[in-house]
Amino acid sequence: MTLLLQAVADGLQMGLLYALVAVGLTIIWGLMEMINFAHGEFMMLGMFGAWGLSVLLGWDPLITMVPVAVIMYGAGVLVYRLLMQRVQRGEVFTQIFATVGLFFFIQNGAVAVFTSDYRFVGKSLLTGLSGTNLTLGGVRVGVPLLVGGLIALAIFLALYLLIDRTDFGLALQATSEDRDAAMLVGIRPQRMYAVAWGLGTALVAVAGVILANFFAVYPQAGLSFTVMAYAIVALGGFGSILGTLLAALLVGVVQSVTAAYLPPAFKDAFVFGSYILIGLFRPQGLFGRF
Amino acid sequence: MAPLLQVTSCTKRFGGLVANHDVSLTIESREIVGLIGPNGAGKTTLFNCLSGALHPDEGRIVLNGIDISRARPERVCRLGIARTWQVVRSFGRMTVLENVICGALRRTSRMGPARARALELLAFTGLAGKEDVMAAGLTLADKKRLEITRALATAPHLLLLDEAMSGLTPMETTAAVELVRRIHDELGLAICVVEHVMEVVMPLSHRVIVLDHGEKLTEGPPAEVARDERVITAYLGDRYRARS
Amino acid sequence: MAALAALLYPIPFEQSGYIYYETVGFLVLLNAMLGIGWNIIGGWAGQFDFGPNIFFATGAYTAALLSIHFGWNAWAGLLGAVVVSVAICAAVTYPITRLRGHYFAIATVAMWMIAQPIGATWELINGSRGLFIPVAPGKNLVHGMLTMEFPGRGKGLGFYYLALFLFVLTLLGARAVERSKWGFYFRAVHDDQDGAEGIGIDSRLYKVIARCLMAAVFAAGGVLYGFWALAVFPDQVLEVNWNILPMMAAVVGGLGRLWGPVLGAIILIPISQLMTATLGAGPLAGRGIDLIIYGAVIMLIAGGRPNGLLSLPWARWAGRLVGRAPAGPAKG
Description:
Number of strands of chain B: 10
Structural class of chain C: mainly alpha
Distance between the termini of chain B: 34 Å
Helix content of chain C: over 70%
Strand order of the largest sheet of chain C: 1-2
Helix content of chain B: 25-40%
Strand order of the largest sheet of chain B: 6-7-8-3-9-10
Oligomer: heterotrimer
Largest interface: A-C, 53 and 49 residues
Number of helices of chain C: 15
Strand content of chain B: 15-25%
Largest sheet of chain C: 2 strands, antiparallel
Radius of gyration of chain C: 19 Å
């Protein structure tokens, strides 16, 4: 029983981080119904950013979050303007294909530059805390992961406030509801889309920076996170930010519980399997609005 | 004789909006029934329920004795209802002939007979000579013609035409009405026509059903319905009278 | 007519005694065949499938297991592999047919990712230790064609012809499907799924059928590869190259066109081999770079022609080069 509780506790914390990974996708999807096969690759780049700056300048990942966020925001906008803007008008197939190309390009670019070796962020605030635990009701809660999760949660809530309470967020929502109507009130959809891409990319890269404290950094790390992000967005009802958070927590728990009882290679299998099951039984997601 | 189509208390809601409320109607074989009503009356929703694109929340739809209330669109088509869409649809990347062949394949799996049937129908609906044109390159009138031809190829008992005349010039409209008449007379189908153009639907229909705000207002022969005060009010408001 | 000319075209290759080129030819044909298979679901039915290599793997493993445990002949194994793969495909695909566009694509990726740990850990197939196919050195070419076992020197030649044979089979099969009810229905579902359902097409069923046809082709390809490599490893058969190359071959050559993947494979495989040969700086870096280039090419194509990936100029120019009429959409 304690094993189960432990797994659930771990899963919830990981879920917070996964929420940050997935929320960028939710924004982009909610706004323009676009898929991004390369979503996880940006996360991977964020991880490498954390590792690189840690090795080169000795910066703690918590500091690195800021420059990474800024740079990756720019990268997202660039990707939108150079590529996605062009394929938006075309077939869905082409959109998928374009991001598949992006996926291969980024992942293998990383392989070429960094090789596929695993890297680790050596010294950081969070890794320094590893080993310290809080014990709540017989369940050991590792401090590093908890802090990481709370940081993610903070960013998540900041995002929620941005979308829900600011004029800009309102403009974003308006464009996603009805692009033409938004244009009529002076909102420029192209600008919204570019910002959404920038924001989504920045968020997932920052998630990568935090995750670099806990996971190995290597070029192939991205794809399984992409699929997981999709599973989360699908579960969370496609476009609902709070739904994403809840779904991410659920996914974190499922993954963690699976890892506790099955061989580690299978920890993602359940999550992916559930994505397929959702397609079968509840296409609008667990918390869907439809 | 049992009616071809029997709709009993069909109700369809979208969240808080009740698009169809307790609508009951019948359609007999070989009838032309007009379905009219102001915008937002729920006509297309009803069509969607009939063709299986949507399923009613309450009520039953029975075709030839078979309950199709929950049937998927392809099953409804197999059982004998074909439809055209409010915004015209075709397989843009296929030729006119290929489009109709797709319909004909519903009734025969072999390409030879399907092709022959398609060619026959294209001649019947007046698209002969355009077989190899890409569907995306047709004029609107021809696209509608193609859509009807393709629907006919599935050999339906009941053809649902959703605003087939919208967007047509007067000349094209006359030709379209002619076509509908010929389809009825020569192919012996029942046809249900949703239409806004009164000059079209009144002369064409044997019977007219009026929807308003999701409910059936009245039904009857066109002349009667046109004179019905409630119908006039629904369309035009209290202060006008229809020209007869 | 035009098809025959293209069939005779590759034969001269075997006259040169260079095994390497025969292997390249083998890979071209294999990928062309897989590309045609992918075209069925990707080009005609319009569903983006990013995980066809799971059937490549099931094909290879089934045939390998049948050979190892029951001593089945390679061709019998191929039949068995196709049957098993199609059955698996039907079972796993039906649930996801409700998903459209992106969601379907991600579901296929999810399947691929589930397959990887299964491949690495399942004891029946020896997990990541791989399966070795017991192959006696063959006696001669004819015997080899019947059993896929070739004498050492004749291997390149023999497998080239096997690949050619399966390729032609696939091509003819695809051509037959294209002109049949199935072909029409696939394209209808792609063009307008709701409209298609309105004329009586069960879109879910036909998506499954299209994917199963692809699975059959990939399974056959997997068997061929397995007997060529004489061993089946999960990393090898689930490798991403067996996804991306057929897909790219189909797209570069002309998505939805019967000969498209052939053209694409003829262009892409030699380039990839060339890159491997010249770059040579360690196996990983070499392969990585050609994927980078593929990625860039994909983005260029997607960005350059968003409303149609039909690379028309290629088909027309290539057609003029070989002196035949450009391949139009097959009709009648």
